[in-house]
Amino acid sequence: MFAKRIAIFNPDNLSGGNAEKHERSNELSGFNQGRGKQHGAALLVMLVILVVGIAAILVNSLTASSVKTARQATTAAALAQAKDALIGYAVSDLNRPGELPCPDFDNDGMITLADYSGINCKSLIGRLPWKTLGLPDLRDGSGEHLWYAISDTFHANGSTIINSNTQGTLLVYNADGVSLQTQSGYSAVAVIFAPGNPIGTQTRNTVAQQNDAANYLDFANSRNNATASGPFIAGASSDTFNDQLLYITTKDLIPLLEQRVAGAVKNALADYYSLNGYYPWADNLGYGSDNYLANDGENRGWLPRDASAGGAPDWAAGNLPQWFFDNQWYALIYYSVAQKYTEDPYHCSTCDNYTLSVDGANGVRALFFMPGTPIAPQQRISTSDVATLSNYLEDSQNKDNNNDLYVTPTSQAADRDRLYWLSSSSIWKP
């Protein structure tokens, strides 16, 4: 019995059992290590997928943002180019400077008889006539042609006189639909629209649909951009509104138009002097003298429509273009000639000095003012308004009409009154 027990507890047997357990332990350890490696690999794969997903979202977001920014930039550039082209067209018009082309009604890019009803524009809203304006195929960031609305006072073939007093009639509201974006006294002459992609019920498939402003221009806060005469709205971008717009006011147009008129007056005065050796008398500024005929012996007042007075002749044919008379520019231009350069210096009843003076510099031969657009409290409607020089000029030394001393206008705003004067060396300034 004892021997058997000794055999059972033989140290060799005990050593063999521990080795077997150790081997099993090693197997379990290897298994666990394998599982750990697999688990780690799975986590790494999941992390990679997560990173790739986040990167894709960021890339898509950045791409969408970049596309939106690029489209907005394209739209802004197209609107600005259209505005410049319209102003250039208006200023350079041969027959009625200041007028703008009718909107393009049939989307062919140019103005033809199809865009007229008789002599009038078929509609005061339509597409921008980019071909007529000499532009490339101008489109917004969504690939759509621009639309365009025009004031009734500035459209082509209109009967309205266009000069510094002419105002636009189109109103543009801010996004709230309540506050005006166009300033008082500066309603828009024209409004240019970038319509963007179709939204809501807008459909642009058939020709009729493509010529319907409602399928391109949007409605917000009781303001509808698809109406011919407005009022219009510069709305906030949303799922139901994506118009972008830019407008032209008299602040944009009239100063450039006045520069063209000033050029015509300079040339006419130079031609008159070249033919006669003196400059014409002025029209008296007094109440009731709004016939704009030169008054013998008057050296300051309005630039005369008819320059003949005393022995002085009228403007020679072609001295001033017909549109100058048709649009009554003479009724807005204050003019003065130095005693030395009149037809009869000793017959001048209003002259104070032998020459005129500007900013203290003597020797000025002649001068005139372009008036700019009227601002409150200026009025230029009645005969009494015409006789009140403060309705046209702003600096006290220029609007007193009782001496030959003048100053460069204080305001440098583009649409305020501007002085043009002929120096002793016969050079026009500015």
Can you put this structure into words, describing what you see?
This protein is an alpha+beta fold. The chain folds into 3 domains: 2-65; 73-249, no CATH class; 254-429, no CATH class. The chain is 30% helix and 14% strand. It has helices at 2-8, 11-92, 207-210, 250-276, 322-326, 383-386; strands spanning 116-117, 120-121, 125-127, 147-150, 172-173, 188-194, 219-220, 223-224, 232-233, 244-249, 300-302, 334-337, 356-358, 361-364, 366-370, 405-406, 418-422, 428-429. The chain has a 5-stranded antiparallel sheet, with helices on one face. The radius of gyration is 40 Å and the shape is elongated. 36% of the residues are buried.
Main beta-sheet annotation: 5 strands, antiparallel
The percent of residues in helical segments reads 25-40%
Instruction: Please give the domain count.
Output: 3
First-last Cα distance: 138 Å
| Tally of separate helices | 6
Low-confidence blocks of residues: 1-15
Number of strands: 18
Strand order of the largest sheet: 11-12-15-17-18
Q: What pattern of helices and strands is seen along the backbone?
A: HHEEEEEEHEEEEHEHEEEEHEEE
- Beta-strand percent range: 5-15%
Please state the overall shape, judged from the principal axes of the Cα atoms. elongated
Mean pLDDT: 89
The structural class is: alpha+beta
User: Radius of gyration, rounded?
Assistant: 40 Å
